[in-house]
Design goal:
Alpha-Beta Plaits; Aminopeptidase; 10 helices; 2 domains; 19 strands; elongated; binds zinc ion; single chain; six-stranded mixed beta sheet
Length: about 425
């Protein structure tokens, strides 16, 4: 191992306690959608203190609604703050880099299912517990402290770097899109989402929509003359399950997903309806999440989903005359495959990460196709920036007792620091 390499890795070790306290403080902010502001100000202040030029702005729908990749939202964007800190190189001899992470976390669900309050992070047996610790505040902290480790040995990247902390990853990706709209570009992007120190080479796309149903409200004693809007959802959901089965047949699978039994998952994530136990419900609304393959056309997929719902409604005497209404909100996200880049930078970025990972772990870098989406698609599809997703091992993300492996986070921070040294080159401070 070269002298510089071991110096960088030792510097990460030296700062690691500080990194863990930073992560713990960051996890303490309950940065669910709409509540990211205080966490973002904490990140922005930290980066400002470190001397970065720091850009903080509110994402505005009208700035991005016309752009490819935009996902529709219900409601406004109050407090949707994005943060981008810029490192300016003096020599600019290396390749530039975006280090991206998202600040938003998903809701915690019923508190009684957690062993400890989700926003009171604690460490136990090599893990840090807390909502967002894994997905993906550990990654955000790794980005920041990888650069910190270089500074610790008197070095800085020999190219421009943009540290991005974005909102909205968990529901639209409009935070990352707003960074593109604001003009941030680089030769590669790195996103330390928690995929267990493996490189994501493909990700699926995601579509969210709501189905609204109207029934006929009567007293339950005359139920025969009414129409139950909640029960009307049942045949529609079962038709969507048939479509899901069809999209998961071998013939329809994307080649990168052939090895997976069931890559595209339908989820009925929310349902509400009715007003009173003794009234036949007049209304029902359910939320659907469906996935699509990389390269699957979103408009065609939407048309298939709509045909499925309207087709099932036609079979029903009441629904055929009272059509369900479909409302899109949240994810309209295409899939993305890293290998679709036919630019040399993509191969070089992957090789640089492979080498960094091998140095730190001693193992070859594994890659995988994931059945989730990430913000990588914006850089990859709409700016032709190869986007590498590579982050620590975490468990129960989106579940109860979410936790991130602290040794894994340390290794990822070392890999990122070595990746920066290889990709951007280094210059003295
Ligand atoms: Zn995430």
């Amino acid at each position: 191992m070269g002298n510089l390499t071991s110096q960088i890795m030792t510097a990460v070790d030296k700062l690691y306690d500080e990194q863990v306290s930073f992560l713990s403080e960051l996890t303490r902010y309950p940065s669910t959608r709409g509540n990211e502001q205080s966490a973002q100000m904490f990140v922005a202040d930290h980066l400002k203190d470190r001397g970065y030029e720091t850009d903080v702005w509110n994402v505005e729908i009208e700035d991005i609604a016309h752009l490819p990749g935009f996902s529709p939202v219900l409601g406004d964007y109050e407090n949707a703050l994005n943060v981008v800190a810029t490192h300016k190189s003096r020599s600019s001899t290396g390749k530039s880099l975006i280090l991206n992470g998202h600040i938003d976390v998903v809701p915690v669900g019923p508190l009684e299912m957690w062993n400890a309050p989700p926003f009171e992070p604690y460490c136990d047996d090599g893990w840090m517990y807390g909502r967002g610790a894994g997905d993906m505040k550990a990654g955000l902290a790794a980005n920041i402290f990888a650069l910190e480790a270089l500074r610790e040995i008197g070095m800085q990247p020999a190219s421009d770097i943009y540290i991005q902390s974005v909102v909205e990853e968990e529901c639209t990706g409009n935070g990352a899109l707003a960074c593109l709209q604001r003009g941030y570009r680089a030769d590669a992007a790195l996103i330390p989402e928690p995929f267990s120190e493996r490189l994501v080479h493909a990700q699926i796309g995601v579509i969210w929509f709501q189905v609204h149903l109207k029934g006929i409200p009567v007293h339950v004693s005359e139920a025969g003359s009414g129409y139950n809007a909640i029960e009307a959802s049942i045949p529609l959901i079962s038709a969507l399950r048939d479509l899901e089965r069809n999209w998961n047949t071998q013939e329809r699978k994307h080649p990168l997903y052939h090895h997976l039994d069931h890559p595209l998952n339908l989820n009925i994530g929310r349902i509400e309806g009715g007003d009173w136990p003794s009234s036949v419900p007049a209304w029902c609304c359910f939320d659907v999440r469906m996935a699509v393959y990389p390269g699957q056309d979103l408009d065609a997929a939407r048309a298939e989903l709509e045909d499925c719902i309207y087709g099932a409604a036609k079979q029903d005497p009441f629904l055929s005359k009272n059509q369900p209404e479909i409302v899109y909100h949240g994810f309209l996200a295409e899939g993305y495959a890293l290998m679709d880049h036919d630019i040399p930078d993509a191969g070089q970025a992957i090789a640089t990460l492979e080498s960094a990972h091998k140095t730190v772990t001693g193992d070859a870098l594994e890659s995988l196709a994931v059945t989730a989406t990430t913000d990588a698609r914006f850089f990859g599809l709409y700016a032709n920036i190869p986007a590498l997703v590579y982050g620590p091992h975490a468990e129960a993300i989106h579940g109860f007792n979410e936790r991130v492996d602290l040794e894994s986070t340390r290794r990822v921070t070392q890999s990122i620091a070595l990746f920066i040294a290889g990709w951007c080159g280094l210059e003295e401070i």
